[in-house]
Design brief:
This protein has 126 residues and is mainly β. The protein has one helix and six strands, in the order αββββββ. Strand 3 and strand 4 form a beta hairpin.
Length: 126
Amino acid sequence: DAVRSKSLWIGEHEVYLLATPWQQQPSYQAPSSHTVRAEYLLHDSIPASAVVIEVYDPDFIRITSVNGTTKTIPEWVTPQPEDWNVVEFSASLPKSARFIPYTFVHWAWDGHIDAYKKPYPQNSVQ
């Protein structure tokens, strides 16, 4: 409904594969397990109720799903470093992440449960 679609929105976001010191060597072999860092902004007047980040392989098979943080800022505020939500997690990426695209999906639920449309009571006439 209109109330929900105008409240929470996901702003700027980035996903990084973090390299360990041994992975930065010239003889680097692509491991199947990576540490992933997801950074994102959420815009709303109140905190989100939930965030989930899903990772899909090149064949669109879900690899993993993790809960994210729910810090929000109003859309008119210029983001500061402390306004970013940051989540680090491990993901198994068996195909070369360097050449094959993986898909990272950010899902967020708003915290406006009091403004949701209320269902009709069971005994009422519609």
